[in-house]
Amino acid sequence: MAISFDAEHKVFNLSTPNTTYLFGLFKNKFLLHIYYGKKVTGSFDIKDVCDYGVRGFSAESVLTPGEEYSENDMPFEFPTYGNADMRIPAFHAKYEDGSTLTRFMFAGYKITKGKPKLKGLPAAYVEDDSESDTLEIELKDEETGISAFLLYTAYNTCDIITRSVRIKNHSQSNVKLDRVMSMNIDFHDNNFDFVHLHGGWAKERHIERVPLMRGFMGVDSKRGASSHVHNPFFALARKNTTESSGDVYGFGLVYSGNFVAGVDVNPEDISRVFMGINDFNFEWNLRAGEEFQAPEVIMCYSADGFTKMSQNFHRLVRKRICRGKFRDTTRPVLINNWEATYFDFNEEKIVAIAKAAKELGVELMVLDDGWFGKRNNDDCSLGDWYPDKNKLPNGISGLAKKITDMGMQFGLWFEPEMVSPDSDLYRAHPDWILATPSKPASLGRHQYILDLSRKDVRDYIVGFMTENLSAAPISYVKWDMNRSITEAGSAMLDKERQQEVSHRYMLGLYEVLETIMSRFPDVLFEGCSGGGGRFDLGMLYYYPQFWTSDDTDAVERMYIQYGTSMLYPTSTMGAHVSAVPNHQMGRTTSIDVRADVAMMGRFGYELDLAKLSAEEKEKVREQIIRYKKIEQIVHNADMYRLVSPFDSNNMAMEFVSEDKETVLVFYFTILGKPNRRPERLCLEGLENGAKYEESETGRVFDSDVLSNIGIQFVCDHDFQSRVMTFKKVK
Ligand code: DGJ
Predict the structure, then answer these.
(1) Cystine design at 150: which of 128, 137, 190, 422 (Cβ 3.0–4.6 Å)?
(2) pLDDT over 80 at 64, yes or no
(3) Average pLDDT of 34-60?
(4) Which residues pair with 605 in a beta bridge?
(5) Residue nearest to atom 11 of ligand 1 (CA)
(6) Nearest in space to 554 (alpha carbons), one of 577, 530, 586, 531
(7) Would you call 622 exposed, middle or buried from its count of C-beta atoms within 10 A (0-12, 13-18, 19+)?
(8) Of 638, 24, 17, the residue nearest 300 (C-alpha)
(9) pLDDT band per the 50, 70, 90 thresholds, residue 314
């Protein structure tokens, strides 16, 4: 059993192959966190680990009348506002009598095999009940009639524990939920660094590591999407933790909207960490008998550094967050016309790009923005999803037929959640946009956001997507979303519910995606949001890949893809070779470097291949053959971050197949140094005692030589790359 309750010592024990999570029932009333870390098999008694004697200025406990505890130091498993704990609570609500106090007490638990689905929300899943156990604990506040159901799933197959919370209103009155965190852990000390992924458009998910301060620190999004700026991920690492050693705790939220994640360190150096829907501008009305489901957090503890943490996350994301046909199959190498033409194309141009690409081995032609309405720039036509006959006289079906007749697959771009003011859709339904009633809404990229909290809007989106995907042989959809959500309000909801809109939008979007994707299981969906502005675990439940960034420069991509790999596997990262000088950076790198960087992701091209020299075309042909050979390894292997571009002038990643038979090493120099000795790179994850043959040269190395002495790379030029393949000698 991965989960058990020791009734004698009052301790809940959750275990994964290498980790243990413990919390206990104190005074038979409330839950206190005990431990999360390396696997522990010995038993504990809740009494042995909880000594929360009186400290200056502490109050008499209302939870255990007559006894004094310093509740402000107690490690509550799910803290509320309502006693003498003055730290940031996981739960805060307003009741009809004006009170905001909640006092949850333990009311029962059950342990089941497997893992239940979360109503209306994406979540990690199991395919067989033997993969995990789930613990559901009920906490109840008898006075207010509110229950919190804490859900924990411990996987047997990887070191992942998931958590989420469901709130139920058993009372007869309306309750306003202000804050419902999906997870809270009160760690015993504050000797940690906070590691997170920050960025902006074209510079997503850069790694930052800062020491915890006393007081509150954290990251969030108020942009209606998880956003380019902060990703719903963070890790707490010990000071000495490196990629390959030391303790680290990682947390990822399976949600795509406004989130908050942070740490509150109290004067006793206890670190309260939490993650969930952002409570900023959030309020949920829970009527009598209703339930509210908070999204899921996936948690991983690694005793062996960041790489092990990421490998665990990657395994889960690849196989138990991503779903559908494309989870396990190879995916087509694509060409996308965006950076080749932008809005300036017609059928002839697209067919020519496809033809040149087909000749070199590309399998899928994707037509990006600009094919519908009268969209010759970005200031009109979103919402008018019928082909522009000036550009495409034979419509999408005519173009798609030409492409598929060539033996290629055809893919199409949509931005279904948006509407341009200059569109037939907006003229017909001006009230369909997100806006605060009676106040004008801001435009972003000349567009408004459709109000997906409305059923009529959701039906409309499902309707036109179904029509378009049924009318032509479309094998791939790029689902874009090109602005932040501001002024989230809905004309359909009454005034008390306006602060529900951001979350209702997400629930609406998830419903739409579920409907469309189950209707078209053979279509490969790639998510996008001005690049990686909604690259999160919630989205990956629907699309198995996401456009990582609008920045296609090979050097910038090294940083972006390296940072992204903290939580997300390469199998989810769309990565294309584009033209030089690069359109975002003006930088010129060789087609080899551009391809080698893109091969550490879902590989494709985004330029007019017809414009390449004969030599470059030959390289493209070889690149596609090479990628096809390594695709399954890169996307299913254990990934090792060997050299960080954030700490050095180089970048290196290694991929070791699960059976340790094949090893791929990607090594890059960013800026070369003159007259420089070669760098040595030691490999990781090899089989002890085995010999490995380097494919290109046929040289055979002992694994301990590769792991300890390493291989040499010359780094005397800017923007160089080298990819090496090693095969275990039989
Ligand atoms: C933003 C995307 O990230 C780009 O790749 C492209 O699809 C444009 N939108 C089109 O408007």
Answers:
(1) 137
(2) no
(3) 81
(4) 335, 577
(5) 369
(6) 577
(7) middle
(8) 17
(9) very high
pLDDT tens per residue, range 318-356:
999 999 999 999 999 999 999 999 999 999 999 999 999
Taking the CA of residue 547 as reference, the ligand 1 atom at the shortest distance is 3
Q: How confident is the model at residue 223 (pLDDT cuts 50, 70, 90)?
A: very high
The full 3-state SS of 43-83, as one line of letters, equals: CCCHHHHCCCCCCCCCCECCCCCCCECCHHHCCECCCECCC
489 alpha carbon, distance to own chain's centre: 26
CB of 535 sitting under 6 A from ligand 1 = no
Q: Tell me if 531 CB under 6 Å of ligand 1.
A: yes
Q: Which residue has the tokens 């494709």?
A: 604
Ligand 1 close to Cβ of residue 414 (< 6 A): no
pTM of the model: 0.98
Tell me how far the alpha carbon of residue 388 lies from the centroid of ligand 1, in angstroms: 18
pLDDT on residue 51:
66
Closest ligand 1 atom number to CA of residue 529: 3
DSSP 629-687: HHHHHHHHSEEEEEE-TTTSSEEEEEEE-TTS-EEEEEEEESS--TT-PPEEE---SPP
Catalytic residue of the set 550, 592, 596, 608:
550
Mutational pocket test of ligand 1: of 550, 560, 576, the residue with most ligand atoms within 8 Å of the beta carbon: 550
Nearest-angstrom CA–CA distance, 124 and 252: 11
Best of 369, 420, 484 to mutate for ligand 1, by most ligand atoms within 8 A of CB? 369
| Residue at 723: amino acid letter | V
In short, whether 638's Cβ falls inside 6 Å of ligand 1 is no
**Alpha-carbon span 693 to 546, nearest angstrom:** 34
Among protein residues, the one with the nearest Cα to ligand 1's atom 1 is: 530
Q: Is 482 in the pocket of ligand 1 (CB under 6 A)?
A: yes
DSSP annotation of 430 reads: G
- State pLDDT tens for residues 615-665: 999 999 999 999 999 999 999 999 999 999 999 999 999 999 999 999 999
Does 417 sit in the ligand 1 pocket, CB within 6 Å?
no
DSSP-H helix ranges across 361-450: 395-405, 424-428
Centre of ligand 1 from the C-alpha of residue 175, in Å? 42
* Encoded tokens for 221: 């999004």
- Six-digit token pair at 395? 């419509």
Scored b (16 or more CB within 10 A) or e, 636-672 reads bbbbbbbbbbeeebbbbbbbbbeebebbbbbbbbbee
DSSP letter assigned to residue 570: G
3-state secondary structure 600-622: CCEEEEECCHHHCCHHHHHHHHH
Token pair 């489901």: residue = 293
- Specify whether 480 is catalytic: yes
Of the residues 480, 596, 608, 638, only one is catalytic, namely 480
